[in-house]
Give the backbone structure.
Amino acid sequence: MEKANLIITVTAVFILLFSNGNISDKINYPGESNSDQTSSKSVQTQTKSTQTVSKPVQTKPKSTQAVPKSTQSVQTKPKSTQTVTKPVQTKPKSVQTTTKPAQTKSKPVQKSSKPVPVTRSKDVGTVRIGTQTWAVANLNVSTFRNGDTIPEARTNKEWVAAGESGKPAWCYYNNDPANGPKYGKLYNWYAVNDPRGLAPAGWTMPGDADWTKLMYYLGGPDASGRKMKNTTGWIDGNIGTNESGFTGLSGGYRVENGTFLNLGSIGTWWSSTESKSSSAIDFYLSLSGSLGRSGSPRQRGESIRCLRN
């Protein structure tokens, strides 16, 4: 019995020791497991930090996505290109606009090609051309409108003296009175510009604008001359049609030194318009079919054609 009790006692001690060993193990292992868990937590924390690091990496694709947006801005360039093409389409419009004035310019030419209507006045000494009433003969008076006498320069010396002193003077071509009824008188421009009035009552001296108006009503410089020239009185058959009724004759002119020139080949008429300090505007018919315009010395002797007021 004592052996049996001893064995039981020893067995109980071993069991107790064995049990205590397991308890200590259980006590120690949780400590170890706590450290392991702590380390694992730190590992997870590192993993989290690693994930945190990876987040900026994810932002890079976002910036990469922003690149296509800029690519879309590149696509707006074709739109600006389309905008450029619109002004290109407007250019033909401006070209069409420029052609309209050209058509407008051609209209007066078409009008000039038609026969010029001539209205004969009851007064046989006038003709209606457009809106103007012209005398059909050159001026042939020897007094101003107020009755004062216009000096006649019969010699070259008298003619030169009148011109140098700026005084009015008149003459017949070649100082021959027989030329008066057909060609009228030749006057220097000082007689034209005299304040006493060279044109008779009811008449006026035509200016540059009046002559130009007549010219373009008859078709311009190139076409008007032939329509103004008389059907006789021009040398070598260089006559006109006198379509306008102006009855332009080649009465010649007298130059500053008193010499007479170009009877039968040139007709010249003063305007009342000054050109420079020593010249004035005149218009002339020649052997061609044109009506010319020039500035001539005021001492020169030329014909006068008046306009009805």
Q: What stands out?
A: The first strand starts at residue 118 and ends at 120. Residues 118-308 form one domain. Residues 19-114, 118-123 have pLDDT under 50 and may be disordered. Residues 229 and 248 are 4 Å apart (CA to CA).
